[in-house]
Amino acid sequence: MPPSLYTPAHFAAPSLAAMHDLIAANDFGLLIASNGDDVQASHIPFMLDRGRGDKGTLLAHVARANPIWRLLETRPALAIFQGPHGYVSPRWYATQPAVPTWNYSAVHAHGPARLLHESAELTALVDRLARLYEDPAGWSVAGQPERFIDGMVRGVVGIEIEIADLQGKFKLSQNRPRADRDGVIAALEASGRAEDRSLAAAMRATLPSE
To answer: Which residue of 49, 84, 110, 191 sits 20 to 30 Å from the alpha carbon of 159, by its own alpha carbon?
Structure first.
């Protein structure tokens, strides 16, 4: 499969585990399907099952009225996940002259989709997804009226994507001298934006140990 994510070697994700961690931490992803004439995209939460398949399996559901699932009956899925990102000013570099850029991390997951229509499978999927976000005493399928749950699952289609290809790009200034990287990290850590500080932490994790 041709790569869908342009990735120079110095920005390649360091490991499968790193890509899985990014998905798990940023699990509100973008699901894309196309048959060549029609392109559909849906922003939905995913659950990653790391142990199913060589590269993991993504679990999700969409409204039955959403046309994207019909494309997935015959076409593979692409799910995109984005980590912390932000503007990098050339003023933060020790090396001059320089130009502005944008640092970010992203993962593209490709694979065939298995669609779930059967009530018991959908009920289990909805319950599993809810438990990912609820505390132990929170909402669960078991606590709802049976007729309510039956009506709910009739309105959704479940999606399982066994990941066949996983591409990760961690563009975090790895191509810059250490002094430049330190300057960017310091500026981001001093920012009032929480995402900038998260980006700084992601950059710091790429620094070689001293």
So the answer is: 84
The DSSP symbol for 55 reads S
Indicate the helix (H) or strand (E) that contains 29. strand 28-34
CA dist 138 and 134 (Å) reads: 5
Two tokens, residue 181: 């990287």
What's the whole-model pTM score? Answer: 0.95
CA distance 191 to 52: 39
CB count within 10 Å of CB 197 equals 15
- At 85-132, the pLDDT tens digits run 999 999 999 999 999 999 999 999 999 999 999 999 999 999 999 999
Residues making up the chain, counted from first to last: 210
Q: Which domain covers residue 111, as residue numbers?
A: 9-83+105-172
Largest CA distance in the chain: 67
Provide the 10 A C-beta neighbour count for residue 61. 23
Q: Other C-beta atoms within 10 Å of 56: how many?
A: 21
Report yes or no on 139 lying in a domain: yes
Residue 127: give its domain's CATH number.
Answer: 2.30.110.10
Q: Are 29 and 135 in contact (CB under 8 A)?
A: no
Q: Helix 119-133 and helix 146-154: axis angle, to 10°?
A: 100
At 67, give phi and psi (nearest 5°). Answer: -70, -10
